[in-house]
Amino acid sequence: MIVGAQWGDEGKGKVTDLLAERADSIVRFQGGNNAGHTIIRGNETFKLHLVPSGILHPGKTCIIGNGVVIDPGVLISELDELRRRNVDTIGLKVSANAHLIMPYHLLLDSEGEAKLGELKIGTTKRGIGPCYADKAARLGIRVQDMLDETILRKKIMTAMEPKRQELRPFARDPMLDLHTMTEAYMTFGHRLEPHIADTAALVWNDLQAGKEVVFEGAQGALLDIDHGTYPFVTSSNPVAGAACVGAGVGPTAIDEVWGIAKAYTTRVGSGPFPSELDDDIGDRIRDTGGEFGTTTGRPRRIGWLDLVALRYASRINGLTGLCITKLDVLSGIETLRIATGYRTDDGAEFKDFPYHQSVLHHAQADYVDLPGWQEDISGARSLEDLPQNCRDYLNFISDSLGVPIVLIGVGPERSQVILSGDRAAELA
Ligand code: GDP
Ligand code: IMO
Ligand code: MG
What we know:
Adenylosuccinate Synthetase, subunit A, domain 2, Adenylosuccinate Synthetase, Chain A, domain 3, five-stranded parallel β-sheet, 14 helices, 20 strands, 33% helix, 19% strand, globular, binds guanosine-5'-diphosphate, binds 6-O-phosphoryl inosine monophosphate, binds magnesium ion
């Protein structure tokens, strides 16, 4: 299982693509097209929002599980774009139980943010929150509903009814016309029908046959609706435990959980960020690392690596391995800082991630300083190729977390990785 161990955009797409080569199926289990997962193959760049990052390997089953929220128009555009680029999409399977993002969800997301004003969450405005809200309220429309016009129409009517007040400003929006919406979603349904399946059964069959399944998380632990920096979070559970629910497998099926973390930290959207940098080094990392949102293009907020948050993410995910990506981006910085604790204005110190929002919102990070390295490491393919300071930086992280580093990213391209430990031989 691949999960984000920070605030998203850690490089999950790249690691999933790498593991997909030897897997049989790849399953997305939560989130929606708020995610943007980048895979770089040679000089081609793919940005995937809904389709699992295994799709570039022909012959794999790529599953969008029941826990994902799907904007069917976006999914169809993504499939069209992949086909245009000669990627075979026949292996894509979509859970009949996954919930659909509807036009009113998009409007409610934007409207909700506008109403919050300065307190806004900074969502991707893709309708994610309102869609999960309807799911919990049992007013959701599911993928299977697109296959029955009578049911679809009735469910849309029932779902829109309690939102009438909030949707009043958009009363004349043609997107909200019941007839137009039903027609549009029926058309999406026809188009997606060959892909619709009982995906939990597909995963079960693969597991029974001893095949390898990769679960691909979206977002990251600190954006988790239960465990993250609420309310500045997404509306699903990106933590490992959610994969079982969102794919329909029992926890005994999971052998390994790899957390993906950048060698520094980024965050898009509002919310606390104790190790945030607001200086030239932050700007430099943003430029070198290309830290602009894959989905919305927004500049990402930048900070030093935060071991308090990462230790927390490691605990709530039960990580068995850690992948440190974008280590190359730190080359050339004289002194690197790592946050090892937090403190508040009244002098209180925290070694563990504080549960109380008032603490977290005022927390400043305490750092240890480590010497940086000047060398370009993008060509390194083994630990021995890395400068000593670089290895010390990695060892400091794995020693502090008590989790082995299994993969190191030294550039955006598929081949720019160092595999370490037992898995290296298997994957090489
Ligand atoms: P995801 O959402 O977790 O899949 O990550 P994103 O694709 O949103 O953002 C990660 C960005 O970092 C992408 O542009 C990747 O191409 C890039 N990337 C991934 N790993 C590395 C790495 O090791 N080094 C560098 N320089 N870029 C990387
Ligand atoms: P991947 O999978 C980074 C953030 C948004 C916002 C908050 C809520 O590429 O790592 P939402 O639209 O989900 O209601 O927004 O969550 N967010 C992400 N940040 N990477 C993502 O996905 C994100 N998906 C949502 O910026 O702060
Ligand atoms: Mg991303």
